[in-house]
Amino acid sequence: MRLLGFGLVLGVVSTLAAQAPQLPKDHPSIDATNNRSAASDLTERLRPSEGGRESAPVPRRNFIDEFIFGKMEKDGVPHASLSSDEEFFRRIHIDLTGRIPRDDELRAFLSSSDPGKRDKLVDRLAASRPYEVKWTYFFNDIYRPAPGRIGQYDNIHLDRPYNQMVYEMLTSNAISNWYVGPASYVARWVVTAVSCEDEVHEDTSDELAIHATKDFLGVDISCASCHDGARHLEKINLWLSQRKRDEIWKMAAFFGKTNVLRRTEVSTAQDEYSIDDNGPGYDPSARTVIRVDRRGKPGLLDPVYMFTGESPDSAKHPRPEFARMLTSDPQFARATVNLLWSEMFGAGIVEPVFSFDLARIDPKNPPPDPWTLQPSHPELLEALAQYFRENNYSLRSVLKLIAQSNAYQLSSQFPGEWKTSYAPYFARKFVRRLKAEEIYDSLVGATNLFTEVPIRGTDVKVRFAAEAYSPDEFIRGVNDPVLREIHFFLESFGQTNRQSSERSNEGAITQAVLLMNSPFLHRQIEAKEGSYLAGLLKEQLPDEEKIGRLFERFLVRRPTPAELAQARQVVTASPEGWEDLQWLLVNKGEFVHNF
User: Fold this and answer.
1) Which of 80, 200, 238, 470 could in theory staple to 411 by disulfide, Cβ–Cβ 3.0 to 4.6 A?
2) Coil, helix or strand for 538?
3) 66-87 pLDDT, tens per residue?
4) How far out from the chain centre does Cα 462 lie?
């Protein structure tokens, strides 16, 4: 009977299929607007612009608005109106907490006449446990700690200064990284040869320098770790095209005395490593098992921080000196706020977020033709970085500042004729597909039907995917048919395993099929005891109100008159009509997108 209400489904198959990745004409790093343009195209497809209408004026609430709206005003670019309360309420819950809100919370928010209710909502969400869970998971996707290794939740909970968090990750020593959580960042990038005990020392040092630079400075030096930038990177990154391989070696030399040794005397399900600074140093002629042979002169290199030319204090260990230089580098704050901006806006001020070109970020020192400045708003980027530093590197402060700006609160619906050239101005809110964990967590939250996932080695069981210590908790459940289905669902929607796969938010036919006809989905929409639907059906409410509440529960809005009429037909067509309506709501394209 579910085909009866198929008109209610807004093309989830075509929507997800249309997002499938396509080969770019050029290397993706050449066109830094790729991500922003893709976000613009998706938004226009799902929220077609409305020609002939004009947007209402939008007041400027903070310096973000001054830069965003000031540039549009200067260049004559129109912008969207402010989002509706329903649109904002759903958006901010997904962006700050990774899951959709409850329907009773929506009704309370809509009924409030408090002019400051949006700011108060942001404050409340930024102090909530779901916020801490979402952002712990977000940063662990970047740091890629091995399964079972945790440590970031307390940092996010306490809003610990980010520079301190990173400094600790880069400098921690440990007899076992199992008992010193921050040390797992260093342990993550150990390189071994034939046996796990055979550490390839210089390769490990290279990996640590490469990933620390990318993760915390937004600069990807991996290409230059195999060859000079000249004759390779001229069309990709102007700054990197001028770098030489030995500069990367000198960066890696900060980790030359760092030993990352597997503890072979212990037997655990996950490898344990001891980490100390008693190593010999970095030899540019040493063997490699993962990149082009090194052909440097035998001997030990002195470390040099490639972004400033600074050398470490000879009286101090080089690794803490590297951490000091990195976290005090202006690029550290710049890259961090750009990362947060990208997560909240759907695209960064600099794109791609981990491919900064340092020769193209200063408007006072512009690059030569045909290069252009890389940031869409260079002055705003610097202002955000300064705000981050002045607020003691507080991630929460930056996220709240962004969320409370009217630039963030613009509607995704554009009132006039949309042009792709407007995308760098952030003239409307970009639509994005939800991440795998966000889709799963929103679905189980909406239905109130949870599968308890055990965390190995603990007595802890979690109900939301983002609460898991790592994606491995689901992978380890492959012998459990229910956990196996959940793992396949998350994997199909692009969940990274933090080992060999990258996260993907691309659409695919498989995803549409899973939402329409998978055992997992059909279990989730059953009106079984304890489910939201079972409770709703027991209430003495007219069908029209029950339908409205299901729309609020899944889509965070009331149905249109046409949707209400169709939904009435669905719920009366068969004994499973109410389950069918839930199926239809999950399969509306808007359920898996944030607007």
Assistant:
1) 80
2) helix
3) 999 999 999 999 999 999 999 9
4) 21
